[in-house]
Amino acid sequence: MSRDQLQSAGHSEGSAEAPFLELLARGASADAYEQPVLLARADGQAPGRIAVLEHAKLLALRVRSEMEGRRRREAELSALFETAHDLAGLRDLDAVLQAIVQRARSLLSTDVAYLSLNDPAKGDTYMRVTEGSVAARFQQLRLGMGEGLGGLVAQTARPYVTDDYFRDDRFRHTLTIDAGVRDEGLVAILGVPLMLGPHVIGVLFAADRRARVFEREEIALLGSFAALAAAAIDAANLLTETREALADLERANEIIRDRSGVIERASDVHDRLAELVLRGGGVHDVSAAVSQVLDSTVRFADAEAAPGDALEVSRAEGHAVRHGGDWVAAVAAGGELLGALVLRGHPRLDPVDQRTLERAAMVTSLLLLARRSAAEAEQRVRGELLDDLLDARDRDPRLLRERATRLDADLDAVHVVLAARLDTTAADADQEAAARRRLWSAASHLAATRHGLAAARDGGTVLLLPLGPGDTATDLARRTARDLGTAVHEAVTVGASAPVRELAVRPESVAEAYAEGQRCLDALRLLDRPGDGAAAEDFGFLGLLLAGSRDIPGFVERTIGQVVTYDEKRGTDLLSTLDAYFACGMSPARTKDELHVHVNTVAQRLERVGRLLGAEWQSPARALEIQLALRLHRLSSMAPQGRH
Prior knowledge:
Layout: H1 3-11, H2 18-25, H3 35-42, H4 47-88, H5 93-108, E1 112-119, E2 124-131, H6 136-139, E3 142-144, H7 148-156, E4 160-162, H8 175-184, E5 188-196, E6 199-208, H9 216-249, H10 253-278, H11 283-294, E7 297-301, H12 308-317, E8 321-323, E9 326-333, E10 336-344, H13 351-391, H14 397-406, E11 415-422, H15 429-449, E12 453-457, E13 460-466, H16 473-488, E14 492-496, H17 508-526, E15 533-535, H18 542-546, H19 552-570, H20 574-583, H21 588-595, H22 599-613, H23 620-638
Parallel strand pairs: 14-15
Antiparallel strand pairs: 1-2, 1-6, 2-3, 4-5, 5-6, 7-10, 8-9, 9-10, 11-13, 11-14, 12-13
């Protein structure tokens, strides 16, 4: 955009965002966002106008950062899926490994990426694939076991990173390795192991020719590519074994037919799994496909429901293991155990079918990770919107409604703000953090299914849920406490606000309602009612202290409203009788003297009060609330007209 165009856009009414939208549309660099502000200052525009431009610039930079983050996550998932597809249709191992190294270099934006494999026969490691390398000596390096950064990774089976290779003394430098690295000009290097079960078979590297700090997400991403590379090598070994088996099967027609059937099933399941990955299938789709191909029953089981010993052995060895008449293949990713595929009633399993089950477990882990990433992204967006409402950051009702609509929430509906907290004490900080994450995850899922919002806050979670027809804040609080407690298997206490309306127009009401919900939560904990849910209306006259609105008319109506209505409709004196009764120490004899009526008249009136307020109206707690309501009603009746 030219200087004249920027000036024109900057001076038009209500168009402070226009130059920044133009920059967003054409993907400009972050530095370019300073130009509209600089031009406004150069033109001597009013400070108010410059402040508006500064605010618009900050918002645009936030949008740009969010867009870049999403594009990066989409690119990472796309690359992982593409690599999984290459693996499912594996024909050329070198091509698959080359694609993995290329994608790793592209996504991490490094100068060089390369992959080395161990040579058990020679007892060293050699370069298998390089991308971006320009030095011949570097491309032909062979490293002795335990030498260089790669040797440290191979020895420890853990990722290692150095931001300055030649100044790092954690690993053993050699003249040969240092000369190759110097020829290539590398400075910062990240290496992650290629694992087959518990064994390191090689190392995947990403390196820069300048100092650089690799972030945790980048290390995890390279680790994912390393897992796929190891799987590709394992798949290639499987294909090699299959070809060797085919050569042996040629000696007998009967064996050929038998093995051909096995290979056809393996090919079929590979095609099916590739299709599932590409069309975004689920875990149960994978189980159904493998069940059909293997002509058996395959089910996905959570880690808690799978056979414990067999599951641990499968995870440690990286293979499906036999458990009685079943087979168990661990579904794991990055050391985290996600569950297992269990093949029922098939004690004898062909090796190829066993590998098929293992490949299916790997694809299942990829699908679970993809689903989790998508769910976590949605949870973060829901939490950000609720955080903005709580902090009243965005006061544009139209933008708030649009953001809520994209999350299937309606800010024009009546909502209740709920503060939820765990009521158990963790043994240490790590366990407490894990418990809070479980609570936040359960609350986010609950909010998504009920068209609401959830966010982590103040050591617990806060939820914004719509109030259904016929529901009360108390009903919603108790139901939420029960549902969250069931989800996390621990007691969860929930305090609820009174219903709030017009959240898009009055976002500050969300913070007020949250404070009220917290007060109710604290009251429940002081009253030793863990795992329960309540709103201010449940605490009688204490609710006046807990409620942010101090709803005195509502308290009076709930407590003695039926008596007030009865007097108004029939012209009776039940309220004055109640006042006198309590003033006379709840003595009917003294009350009749105070009112100058017969004692039977007092008894009849009190009997009528009992029918209106309930049999327990004279209990100490109820009597205290009724006396407070009578006094508040009397004071409100004495107030001048028009005052509340």
